[in-house]
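Handoff note, outgoing to incoming analyst
You'll be picking up this chain. Sequence as last confirmed:
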Amino acid sequence: MEADGSGILMRRAVDENSRLVRGGYEAFSAGDMDTLRELFAVDIVWHVPGHNRLSGDKGGWDAVFGYFEELVSGSGGTFKVTLHDVVAGGEHVIGLHHNVAEHDGKILDLNVVLVFHMSAGRVRECWEVNDNEANWDAFWS
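Most recent structure output, in case you need it:
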């Protein structure tokens, strides 16, 4: 253990970051955007992969929450996220989850990794990575 207590402080930060991101997943699944506003920095940047109408960088609350709304409305309300695990560090948290949706004869079925950059208890930036970009693009095209 660190003599100056920095190891204990780091463990607390890691535990807090993990708790915050798990709570964010719960809030997203419940449609609780107020809780997500508390978690996300006002100037958050969200990076969406692929080559479809949803792809690209989303900057700020309006763009990120607009993207979330499109996930739900564009899937006819079928978009679901199932959290597998959260792995946290001092500045980054990794969320491992599964996405499914079905709409207009298209099926979305992906494993996804979200990489969150944390600062002062808030998500500052997030990168999405999925295991089947062709499926992602076909669903949202």
